[in-house]
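Forum: Protein Structure Q&A
Topic: Joint prediction for protein chains with partners

I've read a bunch of threads here and the consensus seems to be that you should model interacting components together rather than docking separate models afterwards. I'd like to see that in practice. Below is the full input, 480 residues plus whatever partners are listed. Could one of the regulars post the assembled result?
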Amino acid sequence: MNYNWNWQIFWEDAPDGTGTYLDSLISGMQWTLATAGAGWVIALVLGAIIGTMRTAPNKWMAKSANAYVELFRNIPLLVQMFLWYFVMPEVVPTALGDWLKSLPNMAFITAALSLGFFTSARVAVQVSAGINALPRGQLMAGTALGLTLPQTYRYVLLPMAFRIIIPSLTNEVAAIIKNSSVASSIFVVELMQSARSMQEFSAQVFEAFTAVTLIYLGISVIAILLSNLLERVTAVSGFITSGSAKVKGN
Amino acid sequence: MLGSFDFDVIQRTWQHLIFEGLLFTVKLTLVAMLGGVILGTVLAMMRLSSNRLISFVATTYVNLIRSVPLLLVIFWFYFLAPYIGAWIIGAHEPVQVGAFSSCLITFILFEAAYYCEIMRSGIQSIPRGQISAGYAIGMNYWQTMAYIVLPQAFRNMIPILLTQTIVLFQDVSLVSVLGIPDFVGSANAVAHRDGRLVEMYTFVAVIYFILCFSLSSLVKKLQQRVAIIR
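Posted by a regular:
Agreed with the consensus. Here's the joint model:
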């Protein structure tokens, strides 16, 4: 192999004037975490609502929630990002579109939004699977006690359903962190993009990619450890053991 | 505004987008699926092997691949492939590897990790007694796998394998970041050439939605039919 390894490259100054290459990778990591984090908040909130709606007795409600899930699951994430970034500002009223385009963090905001909506459909599927995994008697017991349907969901079904699906939500957290790399295609300078610019400026492609791979691995490991901790902390003794519910992928 | 939506540009370019771009995407998906399922099955058998070393190698590989983004793997191979090529043929300079072959290798290696996990649970869904029965009538490991375990494992896992293939079909869109003319890539080219981003991306989204939605509806139907067999 005729490749000049240079592991000292990380301590050399990057041409964008913000510090060393290592600094730019760290800044990329922060943007990755920010994009994935903001997207995850959106995904969790919308996913919980849509997932609950999918199990609602009201047919119309369940159908529209299903339509939402199908819409966001059947278009590639990259295309969804393009839709939010390039198409959305053009099809809304001109004034609003111009305002959107003038936002300083337009790329970051659209990346977080599209990641959030994309992941919310996947979270919704997990949430309704969690609710459906509960014995039917729980819903009946709740209503027999005189709770209204929303109260039954709030106090009986959802707290247990969420505990069941923590392992699959962990997968989704790991997935949203990985998927945030797609944001590099709409010019968010996250981890992937900072590796690419390091490769372009320094030509030390394999050092850059090795570092980024290690960072992604590190983030994954930390996310999984945290979620295992969460699962242990929230466990209700005698009810749910880890992996007791078979949650299907779709 | 939506009033200025230019249907003309779609009319002019749809044949090129579908018959060249989409066809490329479909081809890459199918070949990568075939390679991915085969390699994934081998990996699954390795993971379940009683040999510690073999199972460790496969497990490490699968976990490593599953914790990094596909986009990163695409770039890794795009830059690494010329060096690997040079190493294989013993050349001193990096050799040119076409974008298609580098993407194909990437997708086979990447998706194999996901197909492996599906095949592993497929193999594990077969009762151990059947394997013992295979050994009892004098079959060796390979015969037991080929005639008893794998056919049933495949059959049980067909719906999930197909669902993963729909994911793969969507993932192929990422190769457009390398400037490869897949469905999204060729739409990209037209969009930037004619300044028609709204029309092109809407068109791509609609076609992707129609295809993936019909495929996943088919898979759901199939799932109900396969479910009875067990």
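Chain B has one domain: 2-229.
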